[in-house]
């Protein structure tokens, strides 16, 4: 039977001759996904086809596929013919970095010092690179934050802080910075919650109002394309926020 043009263009998998075959298969398929030879939405060959191509047993093939699925590279669907390649996300990366930072006992000063560089660069890039869609998304998040603040839903407001900073990083069009911003947000959010717990409801609302005001200043500069203004507004935000945490006795280690 003649093979179809689509079949002729499929990535080629090589037989594996190692003691730890499942890991070698995992690495081989992962490399094909990362290099773009297998693209999001593509279907991997069926188990039977993989067994023939790789000359390994069904349990070995399944273990390799489980490894790929755990790492978010593929999604298996019972009863279908071949796993589906997934769009790669930053979740696994951010979780690993988050754990590393937490177990390294990062201090509040270290966290603030890093953010003074990363977040300021993000604000500057966002002012230079944001699209109309980015501006609209940031504006919608600020509007939602304002509504939450007026309703006194401070805990939910805190969760939107991470959303705002994440959207700002996306607007900056730097994937490395976006990943690291996500990690920082996961570390900062529980600190904000701890700070709220140390205050009266009125004082907590005051802290959130200050955050909202600073976010608005950053947004206004980004929308205006003012890179220096956005950087300055972010610098002030990081400094004042760090001061609030220290004032209420919050540290990155408690």
Radius of gyration: 24 Å
Q: Mean pLDDT, rounded to whole units?
A: 84
Structural class: mainly alpha
Task: List unreliable stretches of 5+ residues.
Answer: none
User: Helical content, roughly?
Assistant: over 70%
Order of helices and strands: HHHHEEHHHHHHH
Number of helices: 11
Strand percent estimate: under 5%
Strand segment count: 2
What is the straight-line distance between the termini? 67 Å
Written account of the structure:
The chain has 254 residues and is an all-alpha fold. The chain is built from eleven helices and two strands. A two-stranded antiparallel ribbon has the order 1-2. Strand 1 and strand 2 form a beta hairpin. Helix 8 runs antiparallel to helix 9 and helix 10 runs antiparallel to helix 11. The longest helix has 23 residues. The radius of gyration is 24 Å and the shape is elongated. The mean pLDDT is 84.
Topology:
Elements: H1 5-8, H2 21-34, H3 47-54, H4 58-70, E1 74-75, E2 84-85, H5 91-103, H6 108-129, H7 132-151, H8 154-171, H9 175-197, H10 201-223, H11 227-247
Antiparallel strand pairs: 1-2
Helix pairs in contact: 2-4, 5-9, 6-8, 6-9, 6-10, 6-11, 7-8, 7-10, 8-9, 8-10, 10-11
Brief characterization of the structure:
This protein has 254 residues and is mostly helical. The protein contains eleven helices and two strands, in the order H-H-H-H-E-E-H-H-H-H-H-H-H.
Characteristic terms for this protein:
two-stranded antiparallel sheet; 254 residues; mainly alpha; 70% helix; 2% strand
């Amino acid at each position: 039977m003649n093979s179809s043009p689509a079949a002729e263009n499929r990535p080629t998998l090589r037989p594996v001759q190692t003691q730890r075959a499942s890991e070698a298969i995992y690495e081989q398929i992962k490399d094909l996904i990362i290099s773009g030879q297998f693209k999001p939405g593509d279907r991997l060959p069926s188990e039977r086809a993989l067994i023939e191509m790789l000359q390994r047993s069904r349990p070995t093939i399944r273990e390799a596929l489980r490894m790929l699925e755990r790492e978010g590279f593929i999604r298996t669907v019972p009863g279908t013919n071949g796993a589906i390649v997934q769009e790669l996300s930053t979740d696994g990366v951010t979780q690993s970095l988050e754990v590393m930072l937490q177990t390294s006992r990062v201090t509040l000063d270290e966290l603030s010092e890093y953010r003074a560089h990363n977040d300021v660069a993000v604000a500057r890039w966002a002012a230079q690179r944001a699209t109309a869609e980015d501006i609209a998304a940031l504006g919608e998040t600020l509007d939602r934050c304002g509504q939450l603040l007026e309703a006194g839903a401070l805990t939910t407001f805190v969760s939107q802080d991470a959303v705002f900073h994440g959207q700002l990083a996306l607007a900056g069009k730097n994937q490395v910075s976006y990943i690291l911003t996500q990690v920082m947000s996961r570390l900062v959010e529980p600190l904000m919650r701890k700070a709220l717990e140390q205050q009266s409801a009125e004082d907590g609302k005051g802290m959130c109002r200050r955050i909202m005001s600073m976010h608005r200043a950053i947004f206004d500069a980004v929308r205006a394309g003012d890179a220096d203004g956005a950087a300055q507004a972010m610098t002030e935000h990081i400094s004042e926020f760090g001061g609030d945490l220290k004032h209420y006795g919050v540290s990155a280690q408690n």
